[in-house]
Specification:
Elements lengths: L19 H13 L7 E5 L6 H14 L3 E6 L4 H16 L8 E5 L4 E4 L9 H14 L4 E6 L6 H16 L4 E7 L1 H8 L4 H4 L3 E4 L5 H14 L6 H11 L3 H12 L9 H25 L3 H11 L5 E2 H8 L3 H13 L3 E3 L4 E4 L4 H9 L1
Length: 362
């Protein structure tokens, strides 16, 4: 039997643990139609928290309701790919010519050049409007999902937001869901492009309740014919700390150590250790990759303390003012690396980052 756990970025897990409420607004939007707030949503959170998985789950819901889905990542050529997908869907559902092919794309004006005569060339907004009107006649709609919005060209996003806003005003069935780390979203909402996007539902994804993790692990192991004791199950769930990517890592590493449908205590412990090591070489390294030297020095001081730590203490250990340290506190919170842990306190957002940094500094 194949391992049911999927510890790969963006891969769909066997169960969507503890995220039902986060999708409820979108589900209601599909039923309520154009203009519903749940149809314009931004998912945020640190790496490994399950943002891409949420987009995939929303796409599945949309398809179940008969909606067309265009799934994209904010890389170069985003608008061209969106236009190509829209033309393909419009020509498939409507009366347009089936063999139309884009040969050029004018980014500044968002015009499309095709192999059709000039009189049939269309602007991007007109193209989207045409497609949505066709979908509306079929009692369906269009969902566009965009992952990793930190990489999107601001001009592209400004145009996309303007078109989506126009479609909503026209009462056409459109939904836009995006995902990104908190800093990327904060940057977007602080720029000119934010006028429309600021009204989007923002869902900050957090850790999953350990009771939900335990139930999901139990169900997945049982469904694949592997038995765990209550103690083993509790230990495996606790090792995940409710962090979605670590749930998949622990499940994957523990599951693969089962022999003849059963697990020993030693196998469970070995799986947990292997999962934590894998976390370090994937999520933890990626979390630190884009940080400055001062950011890393700040985190190193945090790692020297157990549990939540006062910002004033970190400032003192850095030999800087509290105001200076506050600038880097904000940067690291926006990057999804640390979290506000109460009055004047901060803590790590990603499990085991403290231990990882300690090991690197030894």
């Amino acid at each position: 039997m194949r391992n049911p756990f999927k510890p790969t970025a963006g891969a769909r897990p066997p169960l969507l643990v503890g995220r039902t409420d986060a999708l409820e607004g979108f589900r209601e939007g599909l039923e309520d139609g154009s203009g519903s707030p749940g149809l314009l949503t931004i998912f945020t959170g640190p790496r490994g928290i399950g943002k891409t998985v949420m987009l995939s789950a929303a796409e599945d819901l949309a398809r179940e309701h008969g909606w067309i889905v265009i799934s994209e990542t904010a890389t170069r050529g985003l608008m061209v790919r969106l236009a190509e997908a829209m033309i393909a869907h419009r020509d498939e559902l409507g009366d347009g010519p089936p063999n139309r092919r884009i040969t050029a794309f004018i980014a500044a004006g968002f015009g499309l050049t095709t192999e059709l005569p000039p009189e049939h060339q269309v602007a991007w907004r007109e193209l989207a409007t045409d497609l949505l009107r066709v979908l509306d006649t079929h009692a369906t709609g269009l969902l566009i999902t965009i992952d990793e919005i930190h990489a999107v060209d601001r001009g592209d996003l400004l145009e996309l937001a303007a078109v989506i806003q126009h479609l909503i005003r026209e009462d056409l069935p459109i939904s836009l869901l995006m995902a990104g780390i908190p800093k990327a979203v904060s940057d977007l909402l602080n720029e000119d492009v934010s006028t429309f996007l600021r009204r989007a539902d923002r869902i900050d994804l957090g850790d999953v309740l350990l009771s939900d993790v335990r139930a999901a692990l139990a169900r997945t192991f049982i469904d694949t014919g592997i038995s765990l004791t209550d103690t083993q199950l509790t230990r495996a769930a606790a090792a995940t700390e409710g962090y979605p990517f670590l749930i998949q890592l622990v499940g994957h590493q523990v599951w693969r150590r089962a022999v003849d449908g059963a697990l020993t205590d030693e196998a469970v412990d070995a799986g947990i250790v292997a999962a934590r090591n894998r976390l370090g070489t994937t999520v933890l390294q990626a979390s630190l990759a884009d940080l400055s030297d001062v950011d890393r020095a700040f985190l190193a001081k945090m790692a020297g303390n157990d549990g939540p730590v006062a910002l004033a203490l970190i400032a003192d250990q850095l030999g800087r003012t509290k105001k200076y340290a506050g600038v880097y506190r904000r940067r690291l919170i926006d990057a999804g690396v640390i979290v506000d842990a109460g009055w004047g306190l901060i803590d790590f957002a990603v499990p085991h980052l403290r231990a990882y940094l300690r090991a690197k500094n030894e």
